[in-house]
Predict the structure.
Amino acid sequence: MLSFLFLSASVYAISADDWLTKGKSFSVIAYNEYMIGNVKTLKQKTDQYGVDFRYEVNLTPMMMAAKLGSQKIMDDLIKSGAKSQLTDNHGRTAMHLIILSRFLENNTKNEMMEKFYPVLRNDSLRLMINKKLIKLEYYQGEYL
């Protein structure tokens, strides 16, 4: 089985066996603009494909910026009107990815969370409890 990464005009193929050892370096090349916070390079892609386009891994630019901790790119995407409530294959939003990266890195202070929570949070949560649908607004204590 082969996995393909599209980088600029080139296509790189990598076998599934090599993905565990070489996949991270390919990801660094493919998503370099997030690693270094290069808004200009990403702007070219969003102008061409739209601000909420999907990468091969079904993540939007906002999700990638959240996952990789790129505050500059998050700022630019929010100003450009990117949708924060879009989900990946696992139902995770950009906010979920910020929380997940904080958990995985054992990071007690997360600037991304502090800065972008007001923009990325859901307005409400809907829960099914004992066959009753309950809606919790973000300002209610139960929401936390």
Observations:
- The longest strand covers residues 2-7.
- The beta strands are 2-7, 10-15, 124-129, 132-137.
- The domain at 31-143 is CATH 1.25.40.20 (Serine Threonine Protein Phosphatase 5, Tetratricopeptide repeat).
